[in-house]
Design brief:
Layout (H helix, E strand, L loop, with lengths): L1 H10 L4 E7 L4 E6 L7 H9 L8 E12 L2 E6 L5 E6 L14 E8 L10 E9 L1
Parallel strand pairs: 5-7
Antiparallel strand pairs: 1-2, 3-4, 3-6, 4-5, 6-7
Amino acid sequence: MCAHAVSVSLKSVNGVNSVDVSLNQGLATVTLKSGNTITMEQLQRAITKNGFTTKQSNVVVTGTLLSDNGKVTLRVSGSNELFGLVPQNQQIKDFSHLSGKSVTVEGVIPETKKGTRPDTIAVHSITGA
């Protein structure tokens, strides 16, 4: 019943394609429709309004890489959300050469305190066009 409530809540967010919830694993897998404008904050609200807490989120996200004074951020396609990028291994410690280009980032958005907007992605891999 609880998994159903989380699933229904996430599916009600405009732009969600599919949802698979496992309360045993504490995991919700959300697939978004192409061209969506969903923010992480919207997804988190859909979960927390049912009394559940959000944990870290594994993500694959596409956007434009921006670089300003050594700080690298990702502007997410569709939602225009900005996330600071934190490299998680030596192989990807410098991706500023991709500034201004469309990239796909795989990584983790760390758990945030209640009421706090997620603003960083711990990058596992990044590929650019």
